[in-house]
Design goal:
Helices cover 12% and strands 35% of the residues. It is mainly beta. It has a five-stranded mixed sheet, with no helix packed on it. It is globular. The C terminus is likely disordered.
Length: 456
């Protein structure tokens, strides 16, 4: 998670609401002023007394939960721009990291005292505080199947715990030799974990054994505060100085980089589009198309300070960032980059957006079984749940592996998407792209019509 930047003045909270208010016109404080020719944020969420170090969007695409240097969490409504209830208070000090469970029901937070706590999305702490780290917990990641949480600490170790066994440590401590684990991210398949370190390296670990699977990616020249996997698991993106850089997750080879005018601290990948968001110094943010490697829309920023964390909503509609001005700023992606088009739902996309706990053990034996929805029931969510069910079952028939494909099988299946991402190139020289350059897209991956029809 991001560094503790310069202390900023406390912003007084302007509401004493203890329950979620009805939708109403935004107050003057939370309704940004439109500027001709520039993207305008939808809302600015104010209420924390200090810097915002991390936040997560909930699965309903309406709410955000943030964690702060003030040691509290807060819940926000993206429809009204207002806080929901009171701040969530707990012991342990500063909240450095947050992660949301795949079913969307639980949030884990990493504290300054080295503990990991779990909360439900209504602000109630779940019994049992996990300890084991000697220093603060800087990073967290929840496994795609929901069974494990990985925590990274300034003590240089990673602990992987069983969620359903009161946080029993199953793997670790993994001694990373990274002088502090600043970032953690499970791969989409859950078999690997990437870690970013204070020693300016990225490491990729086997999540079941804790062993390195790729030689450390070193000599990066910067602390690695943020790493994120591509949806197909073949690439890793990291914020490194003035560049967002992409690496091959199998070899560690640098593939390309995206140049920025200001140093970056955090990156996020949209679960709905091939769009990378990058933020950092000056709160100047930028969206990039990871296939064409071209910038999307205009740079967008609203206030001074440093953006320390960035994330997309699960439906890809919103992108938001938070940082040293004690504020989360919410933007509508379409208003920043109108050229982005929503692709038709595909089986792979549904699984990547909303990983299911049953996925790894899913086989013909439970073909006719139902599963609990991971989002609140209602008319707006019915079609999403139906698509997820249909897509998952169809994919199991189309590719009849009893469990998730092995590494060799996955590589075979992903050969064509990989070529569509980076084209056919020989050699391993990285490509640097800036806003002033144009690159021709060499190929397009088309989803077969019968797959799209089944998913619908």
């Amino acid at each position: 998670m991001p560094p503790l930047a310069i202390q900023m003045p406390t912003i007084e909270e302007n509401t004493s609401s203890v329950s979620e208010p009805p939708a109403m016109p935004a107050t003057e404080e939370i309704q940004p002023t439109a500027q001709p020719g520039k993207p305008t944020p939808k809302y600015r969420f104010k209420g924390h007394e200090n810097q915002i170090l991390d936040f997560v969007f909930l699965r309903d695409n309406v709410h955000i939960v943030s964690g702060s240097l003030d040691g509290k969490m807060r819940k926000w409504n993206c429809d009204t721009g207002l806080p929901v209830g009171k701040p969530w208070s707990g012991e342990g000090g500063i909240i450095h990291a947050l992660t949301l469970s795949p079913d969307g029901k639980t949030i884990a937070c990493g504290r300054d005292d080295g503990s990991v706590q779990r909360w439900n999305t209504e602000g109630e702490m779940i019994e049992g505080i996990w300890t084991g780290h000697k220093e603060l917990v800087r990073s967290l990641s929840w496994s795609p199947n929901g069974n494990h949480i990985a925590s990274g600490s300034d003590d240089g170790t990673i602990l992987i715990r069983k969620v359903l066994e009161s946080g029993k440590i199953e793997v670790g401590p993994i001694k990373t030799k990274q002088d502090g684990v600043l970032a953690l991210a499970y791969s989409p398949s859950g078999d690997k974990i990437a870690s970013g370190g204070k020693n300016q390296t990225i490491c990729i670990w086997d999540s079941k054994t804790g062993e390195l699977v790729v030689e450390p990616i070193g000599d990066l020249g910067h602390y690695v505060w943020s790493v994120v996997w591509s949806l197909d698991g073949t690439k890793l993106y990291a914020a490194l100085g003035h560049f967002a850089r992409a690496f091959d997750s199998s070899s560690g080879t640098e593939l390309c980089s995206f140049e920025h005018t200001h140093p970056l601290i955090s990156v996020a990948l949209s679960p709905k589009h091939n769009v990378l968001a990058c933020v950092g110094i000056g709160s100047i943010a930028r969206l990039w198309d990871t296939k064409s490697r071209q910038p999307l829309g205009q740079p967008f920023n609203q206030e001074d300070g440093i953006a320390l964390c960035v994330a997309f909503s699960p439906d890809g509609k919103y992108v938001a960032y938070g940082g040293t001005n004690n504020t989360i700023t919410l933007w509508v992606v379409k208003e920043i980059a109108p050229e982005i088009t929503s692709p038709p739902p595909s089986c792979l996309e549904v699984d990547a957006i909303n990983p299911l706990a049953q996925l790894e053990s899913d086989d013909y034996g439970d073909f006719f079984q139902s599963y609990a929805p991971t989002v609140p029931p209602g008319p707006s969510h019915h079609s999403q749940n139906t698509q997820s069910f249909s897509a998952r079952r169809f994919w199991n028939i189309l590719i009849p592996f009893r469990h998730r494909p092995t590494a060799s099988e996955s590589i075979a299946l992903q050969q064509h998407p990989k070529r569509s991402f980076f084209g056919d190139r020989s050699g391993s020289q990285p490509v640097t792209v800036s806003a002033a350059h144009k690159i021709k897209v060499s190929s397009v991956l088309v989803v077969p019509r019968f797959v799209a029809l089944i998913c619908n």
